[in-house]
């Protein structure tokens, strides 16, 4: 891989682009518009913990500094891929890439208006994984950055305000509320795992990474929506196995092989301290390139996506229980009823 201008990350993916223009995303009442977004800072999580042990500050927890005078990427929305709880995934075509990278197929994850803060958090997990060699692009899709723009700053070619964001026109606002939160009022659906006041004992933000972020107090505003986009490598279909039997019957050998590869992916991710938190078949998608995993010495057949409800532990000899618990519970989830969405 090329040397990164960011010494703290391993590939150029996250450090190349400063701005992004998307065609086909929105329009004024009269004309289509090209919408330009700027690179935005990610939103760090607090440390998640089982062991209540205080640890020295870890500077690697910081959001990545924004690339300065970076390249510009111009994309056009093509097809809708899928809608999730917070996001709408679209295939895109590259119209222009001022960095002239040898880009893979790309897609964007645009969030529904209330989930900008959530996508800023997901962006932080991609950054965290890019700080260690052999994760971003190996166990996850490659990630080319997190970009935002207030809708009120977007104009069409004649200077008229953009009034429609096409993917937002027909969205299901809350297709699958988290069962644990279903009894809560709707206005807490944007909460991150570390937001509920009753969960504060499981998190430590004494270093202030979360509370010091401008995203912490950000709230969506129907009168001033923020367009937030993550640019990702486009992968294949999510995992669905024909042998799924409600109630969990005996599974075929082939399926066990696939699930074993997913367990390896989960071991990889968790070994960085990132705990995915939403391991379901829809969040495991088919790899489209063979990239040898340095830990397994073979290419994984799958990639993990959707880190918006992930958490992060610190792995040190002082708090062994955090790692033990995270690894055991994450690997165990693969193939369990939650994984199949039962
Ligand atoms: N990089 C990608 N490549 C291919 N498909 C993707 C990609 N990212 C998302 N998708 C598709 O879009 C769906 C929703 O994306 P996801 O990140 O899971 O959003 P949400 O957080 O809303 O669940 C996924 O289940 C998957 O089908
Ligand atoms: Mg999802």
Automatic annotation (TrEMBL):
Which organism is this entry from?
A: Gymnopilus junonius
InterPro entries named among the record's database cross-references? Kinase-like_dom_sf
Q: What is this protein called?
A: Protein kinase domain-containing protein
């Amino acid at each position: 891989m090329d040397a990164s201008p960011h010494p703290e990350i391993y590939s150029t993916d996250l450090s190349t682009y400063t701005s992004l223009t998307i065609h086909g995303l929105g329009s004024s009442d009269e004309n289509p518009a090209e919408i330009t977004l700027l690179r935005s800072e990610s939103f760090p999580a607090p440390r998640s913990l089982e062991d209540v042990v205080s640890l020295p500050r870890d500077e690697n927890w910081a959001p990545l500094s924004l690339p300065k005078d970076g390249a510009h990427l111009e994309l056009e929305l093509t097809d809708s891929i899928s809608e999730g709880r917070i996001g709408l995934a679209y295939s895109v075509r590259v119209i222009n890439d001022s960095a002239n990278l040898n880009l893979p197929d790309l897609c964007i994850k645009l969030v529904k208006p209330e989930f900008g803060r959530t996508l800023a958090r997901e962006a932080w997990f991609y950054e965290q994984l890019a700080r260690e060699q052999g994760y971003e692009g190996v166990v996850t899709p490659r990630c080319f950055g997190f970009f935002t723009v207030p809708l009120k700053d977007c104009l069409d070619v004649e200077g008229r305000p953009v009034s429609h964001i096409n993917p937002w026109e027909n969205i299901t606002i809350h297709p699958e509320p988290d069962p644990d939160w279903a009894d809560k009022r709707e206005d807490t659906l944007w909460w991150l795992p570390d937001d509920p006041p009753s969960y504060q004992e499981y998190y430590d933000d004494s270093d202030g990474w979360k509370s010091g972020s401008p995203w912490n107090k950000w709230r969506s505003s129907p009168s001033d929506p923020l367009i937030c986009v993550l640019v990702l490598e486009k992968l294949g279909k999510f995992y669905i196995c024909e042998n799924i039997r409600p109630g969990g019957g005996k599974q075929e050998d082939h399926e066990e092989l696939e699930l074993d590869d997913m367990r390896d992916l989960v071991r990889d991710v968790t070994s960085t301290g990132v705990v995915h938190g939403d391991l379901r078949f829809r969040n495991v998608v088919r790899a489209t390139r063979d990239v040898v995993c340095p830990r397994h010495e073979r290419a994984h057949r799958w990639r993990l996506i959707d880190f918006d409800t992930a958490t992060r532990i610190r792995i040190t000899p002082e708090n062994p229980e955090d790692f033990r618990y995270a690894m055991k519970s994450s690997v165990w989830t693969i193939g369990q009823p939650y994984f199949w969405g039962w």
